[in-house]
Specification:
single chain; alpha+beta; Jelly Rolls; Arc Repressor Mutant, subunit A; 2 domains; four-stranded antiparallel beta sheet; 4 iron, 4 sulfur cluster binding
């Protein structure tokens, strides 16, 4: 089936991400909130192994995190149950929900080997009090984070399993598109169990839905968590 990815209305360029991959403030090109590294907002960049914890739920929050390279995930613990709440790609800012209460609301782990920059929350807000451009950037970050939550509800609420899987693939593709990575063959850094948790489905339902989408020629499944999107518009029609 011929791909219709070329019919996208989304531009295949970075959309002004404040921390584009490989261009955080430790890199020569700097960032949107501290272009000349005047305030040295990013303390350090550290490598994490897959599964390693960056922040733990209910612990005091001192840092925000920006993915320089790799993938991360957040989860919420409710009693004996653990639910995946979000997946992150390069350029994403993590732990914004910890800003107000200064407590991490989720546990954040590296889903793959990842390089992550650390931003001191106290220093960020101290600088924001002095520099309107930094304050405006912080507001944009928080608004974007809230927008993601609303968009997630719109995509997944009251949808059947196949539609949720289609919406997830569209979401993951668009996340990459917005950071300038338009490839339609995606290496999923998350297990089917994690995807099931994120979408509130059973693992076997995820597998069955993926197979159904493949039978409709909307996707092609490969080995080792790799999938090709054959029809973006076809997947989008489920949303």
């Amino acid at each position: 089936m011929k791909s219709d990815i070329h019919k996208l209305s989304i531009p295949v360029v970075p959309l002004g991400n404040p921390f584009p991959p490989r261009h955080c403030s430790l890199c020569p090109k700097g960032t949107a909130i501290d272009r000349d590294n005047e305030y040295k907002l990013i303390d350090k960049r550290r490598k994490f192994k897959a599964g390693e914890i960056l922040a733990r739920q209910d612990e005091a929050a001192e840092m925000l995190f920006v993915i320089h390279e790799g993938y991360c995930k957040s989860s919420v613990e409710c009693g004996d149950n653990v639910f995946i709440s979000r997946f992150y790609v390069p350029g994403d800012i993590m732990a914004l929900d910890a800003v107000e209460g200064r407590t991490y609301l989720t546990t954040i782990r590296a889903a793959t080997t990842a390089e992550v920059c650390h931003i001191d929350i106290a220093r960020l807000f101290k600088v924001a009090e002095k520099d309107p451009s930094v304050a405006a950037a912080v507001i944009k970050f928080l608004c974007r984070d809230n927008g993601f939550i609303v968009e997630k509800l719109r995509r997944y609420a009251n949808k059947h399993a196949e539609a949720r899987i289609a919406a997830f693939l569209v979401e993951f593709y668009e996340m990459h598109l917005r950071i300038g990575r338009p490839e339609t063959t995606l290496r999923l850094p998350f297990s089917r169990e994690e995807i099931a948790s994120y979408l509130d489905l059973k693992i076997e339902t995820v597998s069955r839905s993926l197979k159904s989408l493949e039978q409709q020629d909307l996707i092609t499944l490969h080995r080792v968590r790799t999938v090709t999107l054959n029809s973006y518009l076809g997947l989008k029609s489920f949303i």
